UniProtKB/TrEMBL annotation:
Membrane topology of this protein: Multi-pass membrane protein
Organism: Polaribacter ponticola
Signal peptide per UniProt: 1-17
Stated name of the protein: Mechanosensitive ion channel family protein
Domain annotation Mechanosensitive ion channel MscS: ranges: 333-397
Length: 542
């Protein structure tokens, strides 16, 4: 009697255990669980699994349900039910509008998703329509034919892997190696031709980078080939999951490498271009752009790797945005300097090696960095100016001058005769015209006024060279020629002095300076000085 009672209890327990799992379409998790559960080997009931598909006859619905699972298994897409929402009114908020749907794998298989219809969740009509093309993509036409020609001995298992699968893996790797070497040579040839057509440059450094770029490109194409072929070998879900995870990690790493090399190629081409321009500010932009683009590639690559491990990058980006905002508020000066850097490169108020002046500093621009600009003063000391400040203050850029203006006053003694003043002015004009580094079409040499101790002769000239050192050398030659002219015609330069008149004292006479005002002699002296100056500074030496 006890045995019969135990038997009935056991039967009732089994019956109640079987009734625990029913078809449930109340939420995304319930629908997906019902579909996958009733297609497992130990709970295989395809009719119940087909109830997750709406609007098809039973036979066709069963076929669609099986193919959806086969596609997921073939691509190694393991459904973690703990991540699937159990909310009956779940809405997908990604995009411009929200929909009552749930996409199982938004990145790798966005075509397969469930949606809510009349209070219940089913696989979407789009999924049902596209599952045939997805199935053919994962399991090409030749898969079924291969299954038919594989002998019985080919299905023998070693380490739980069938013999034909070992052969398939070997052939796949052999073809992958052949494809790799062919694509590598072809990719380098195409990249080199494009680079030559676009830039018309045969730089050896660029060729070396292109060779390094062709390597990961060929690897990516090879991995894509393996990605297409591997599902045809029909390994289990666990094997496919781990294999495609490793494959996607490798592809992401190679893509990062490709973009890093692409940045290097672009920066090499840009640096060659900047070397041909007169401005050196764009030369300074090369390392800044290189560092920025490299960091951007690495950050995007890391986010991509995180998605492969199931990390929700949307939440991560939102957190990073909030954290970045807090960091920006805490470091406003750094952000202001970065904006100032951008404005300097956009407006280009100066270039590298320009001499700039402001109320607080003056010097030559040596380097423009992310945060500050380095300026070398005339005494070789260094100013480190924050870019936020530099982009706001008024700057006098001497480097943008067309010519270097030089203005000075020459003081002659008050007792200089008018004839010699005219002769001196005429001689200085001749020297300016003969000077190889001054503009002969724009200058002024005139008797402009009476100073405290001298008659003032204004000399206003423009030097052609913008270099500070060349300007000083040009001044030296100009000054020496003027001194020789004054000596030759007998003109004296004045200096601050006091004259005591003694003419009214008995038996005293004033100092009587004798000036030679012979016109012929003066013209001869001027011609001699200008001729000698012209021989010392030929115009073709510019």
């Amino acid at each position: 009697m006890k045995k019969i009672l135990v038997f009935f209890l056991f039967v009732s327990f089994l019956a109640s255990g079987q009734e625990i799992v029913k078809v449930d379409l109340s939420s995304p998790r319930a629908t997906i669980y019902s579909h996958l559960y009733f297609l497992q080997n130990d709970s295989y009931q395809p009719k119940k699994a087909a109830s997750t598909i709406l609007g098809l006859e039973e036979k066709l619905a069963i076929e669609k349900a099986i193919k959806i699972k086969q596609v997921l298994d073939g691509k190694g897409l393991f459904v973690d039910l703990n991540r699937v929402p159990a909310n009956k009114s779940y809405k997908d908020t990604v995009g411009y509008a929200s929909y009552e749907r749930y996409v199982l794998f938004p990145q790798r298989m966005p075509e397969i998703y469930v949606e809510k219809v009349e209070g219940k969740w089913y696989y979407s009509s789009e999924t049902v329509v596209k599952i045939e093309s997805l199935y053919k993509e994962v399991f090409p036409w030749y898969v079924q034919k291969l299954q038919n020609i594989i002998p019985v001995s080919g299905h023998k298992k070693i380490l739980n892997i069938e013999l034909w699968q070992f052969v398939g893996v070997f052939l796949m790797l052999l073809l992958a190696i052949i494809i790799f070497f062919i694509i590598k040579k072809l990719a380098f040839f195409i990249l080199n031709r494009i680079q030559q057509l676009v830039t018309k440059n045969t730089n050896l450094e660029i060729k070396k980078v292109l060779k390094k770029l062709a390597h990961p490109i060929s690897l990516l194409i090879t991995l894509t080939f393996i990605d297409k072929i591997f599902p045809s070998l029909q390994f289990g879900l666990t094997t496919n999951t781990w294999f495609f995870l490793a494959l996607n990690i490798a592809k992401t790493v190679f893509w990062i490498y490709v973009f890093l090399k692409l940045v290097q190629v672009l920066m090499s081409i840009y640096s060659v271009f900047t070397e041909r321009t007169h401005s050196r500010l764009d030369d300074q932009l090369v390392p800044i752009l290189h560092n920025f683009l490299t960091g951007l590639v690495i950050i995007v690559g890391i986010f991509r790797l995180l998605t492969l491990f199931g990390v929700d990058t949307t939440t991560l980006i939102a957190g990073a945005t909030i954290g970045g905002l807090a960091f920006a508020l805490a470091s406003q000066d750094t952000v202001k300097n970065l904006i100032g850097t951008i404005m300097i490169f956009l407006d280009k108020p100066f270039h590298i090696e320009d001499w700039i002046e402001s109320g607080e500093f003056s010097g030559t621009v040596e380097q423009v960095g992310f945060r500050s600009t380095r300026i070398r003063a005339a005494d070789t000391s260094v100013y480190q100016i924050p870019n936020s400040k530099l982009s706001e203050i008024v700057i006098n850029n001497k480097g943008l001058r067309l010519y270097r203006r030089y203005n000075t006053n020459l003081g002659l003694r008050y007792d200089t005769p008018p004839e010699l003043i005219e002769a001196f002015v005429k001689g200085v004009k001749g020297i300016v015209i003969a000077h190889p580094e001054t503009r002969s079409d724009s200058y002024n040499v005139e008797f402009t006024g009476f100073g405290d101790s001298a008659l003032l002769i204004m000399v206003n000239v423009y030097f052609k060279s913008l270099a500070w050192g060349t300007e000083q050398s040009s001044k030296h030659r100009l000054h020496m020629a003027i001194i020789r002219l004054a000596k030759e015609i007998g003109v004296d330069f004045a200096f601050p002095s006091t004259t005591v008149t003694i003419e009214q004292f008995p038996e005293k006479k004033s100092l009587d300076l004798r000036y030679n005002i012979n016109a012929e002699k003066i013209d001869t002296s001027i011609q001699k000085i200008v001729s000698d100056f012209s021989k010392e500074n030929p115009t073709d030496s510019i």
